[in-house]
Amino acid sequence: MAQIIEPGQSPPPTRGMPKHEYPWNEWLDGKHRILRRGEDFVIKPRSIRSYVYAEAANRGLDVECRLGEDFITVEVLGTR
């Protein structure tokens, strides 16, 4: 059952960082990178991969991501 948040009560914190707070300029700077769960992100690797693809598309970049069990690799291939 969904929890009720009473007036004046703060909602519980989210598990990961909001999408806009990841270091996108660094991650999408053109260098081939490995992002590790627990160090660079805390959500599932599949979820961060979706964020990377979406952010790259917003910037007009083509990227390739490869999934590992607790990491992803990110490589910028060029512009769209």
Task: Describe what this molecule looks like in 3D.
By secondary structure, this protein is α+β, with helices and mostly antiparallel strands. The protein has one domain. Helix content is 22%, strand content 25%. The chain has a three-stranded antiparallel beta sheet with strand order 1-3-2, with helices on one face. A hairpin with a 3-residue loop joins β2 and β3. The termini are far apart. The mean pLDDT is 88.
What keywords describe this structure?
single chain; 80 residues; alpha+beta; three-stranded antiparallel β-sheet
Element layout with pairings:
Layout: H1 24-27, E1 33-36, H2 45-58, E2 61-67, E3 71-79
Antiparallel strand pairs: 1-3, 2-3
Describe the oligomeric state of these chains in a short phrase.
single chain
* Structural Rg: 15 Å
Taking the sheet with the most strands, its summary is:
3 strands, antiparallel
Instruction: Please provide the count of β strands.
Output: 3
Number of discrete domains: 1
Q: What is the share of helical residues?
A: 10-25%
Globally, the shape reads: elongated
Distance between the termini: 45 Å
| pLDDT averaged over residues | 88
Low-confidence stretches: none
| Sheet with the most strands: spatial strand order | 1-3-2
| Class from helix and strand fractions | alpha+beta
Number of helices: 2
Series of secondary-structure elements, N-terminal to C-terminal: HEHEE
Q: What portion of the residues fall into strands of 2 or more residues? A: 25-35%
